[in-house]
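Usage

Read records sequentially. Each one opens with the input sequence:
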Amino acid sequence: MKKTNKFISLLLGVCAFSTAFVSCAEAAEEAETQGEADVWTGRGIHTATVSETDEYIVKNGTTDYVLLLPEQPKEYEIYAADLINEYMQLSLGVQFPVAYSTGEEDASDGKFISIGDTALMRASGVSVSQEKFGMAGFRLFTRGDDVYATGSRKGIRYGTYYAAQEFLRYAMDWEVYSYDEIQYDILKDLKLYDFDVVEIPEFETRGLRTRKLQENPEYRRLLRLEIEDEYSLPFGASHSHLKILTYEKYGGLHPEWFVKEADDKTGEMKVHALCLANEEMTSAFVDELVSWFERYPEINFAHLGIMDTAVYCKCEACEKWRTDNNTGTSGQMVDFTNRVCRLTNERIKKLDSARSVELQMFAYSHCTEPPVHAENGEWVADSPLCIPDENVYVWYAPIYANWSEAITSAPNATFKEYLDGWSVLCTHGNLNIWQYNTNFNHILSLHKNFDIESTSLRAYSDAGATRMYMQGQGNVFQAGLIEMRNYVHAKLMWNPNLNYNDLANEFIQHYYGPAADDIAEMFYKQTSYYEYLRSRTPSEETPRLSGGLRVNLVDTKYWSFGYVDNIKNIMEHAYESIKPLESKDKKAYNKYYWRVGSAYMENLFLQLELYRTVYGKEYTYYAIDLMSSIAENYGYTTTQEREASGLLVNYYKKWRATYA
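and closes with the structure output:
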């Protein structure tokens, strides 16, 4: 109950400085239930029985153990062995010798830590099937004096790497909080544990887009996030139709294959889409796709995404197809993707009879609404042609949803209906989700969905979704608690039963050093205040904090001076908390100084944009200098996605001009 009580006290603090707020009694009652475990059962499996034995893996700086790899290990099996040895060296000052399985070794021949698909693992009698464990699930178990860390023997073997992480977690309390904060214990000895761990994530792949993650594949790997180009053809983006069949190559001879319209802003004619009813275009599209799969023989998955536009083909043939099948553009897109997948597999199997590919369509923009209609209170397909094949995935991206609310909330009723409709069509575990975790118009402010994330993830799982992707800012660096969001959301996609507040608090306590309690207070006051803004009765003067990807947040109607000033005081105390380090440990001081600064950026912006005339000239100039130094250190240049650089400089000029 300590965390719950703390949350209540902080929330009551918000009541003290917020005007037009819900009653403190109501807030306390709501907080009392915040963080309590809901009874929910998903597909994921998370079981662990681990006990210490009297034996040792490492004793007095020596070990008799060998890391055993398959005779021809896959990339992630090698990563797993390297990860274990890297942290064994850092924690205990030893590394295991590495051997390669020949099939002749026996468990009685020595002491092994078996990594992945070794002959020893195959002889253990333990099954880790692809059908059950997928790409990411794993087992970590002990037999006699040997430890086995393995995912499925098929595919990329992510699971084996994750099993190695789990071994380190138990061995030395190893935990990845961010690319620049990996913690572990320094040990003298390491006991042998009797492991019996089974982990199967709720979503087989888990993607999260922020610029730091995009730039650092190792960061994604450590957080158990997807590196899409490892298992999917590398088209480089979600919008791939015109990257597969390019206008440059085919437009001159076949302009009828392409849809061109004038750009809204420039008037320039641009290619937006393909004519899906054109069979010659489909044949050429398949030719190009097959050539991609031939260039990447280890990859059997591709994302076929419409371009980032609402434009689609309205030619006579396309209109007739949609009319004949009583459906819209999403139904036609399902049919097109089905046909491409069948034709591609026919061609691929002539080259390699054992190979089979899977394709994914993008249920986005004009293809968001599923091709279903209601009959007797049930959703049914508009046409048999609108049902995705077993090896055709649907990536549902309800971009126009209200992302400040859970997908199950009243403001998102339409998009929840769309989710239900796609769920009815995708009965083979072939529904995937694309969610948005940003505000494109104010990227200094993290999206206000901290407290509703688990609710949405559970709803996606209940709908049958097997893969999850969360889009943040990939083209510019974000300030605020972005590293915390990366950590927490990666954990929740693995297991939505985990508690957001507990995860956030664990991250904060390990990432912000002496300022951790201040950052925790700031975060809990933020989330309490956000919930108030979301729940208050809306009016012209007091709108709800609720909206989509481009809701305008920078307004005194949202952020009272009392709230902004209260957060300011907390963050100033955070700087005071790390001040003693300046003379004791300059390196640590600098680390925490900049981390606190990044967390402070949103509030500094609100101070300067909304209340600089209240704070006065001296403080305004001080705050601008502080904010610009933090921005320069991290490479923050803008407040909006479409203004990739320079926008912050313009704000500095405007703010200074107030007192010029």
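Summary fields computed downstream for this record:
- The longest helix spans residues 586-615.
- The chain is about 45% helix and 15% strand.
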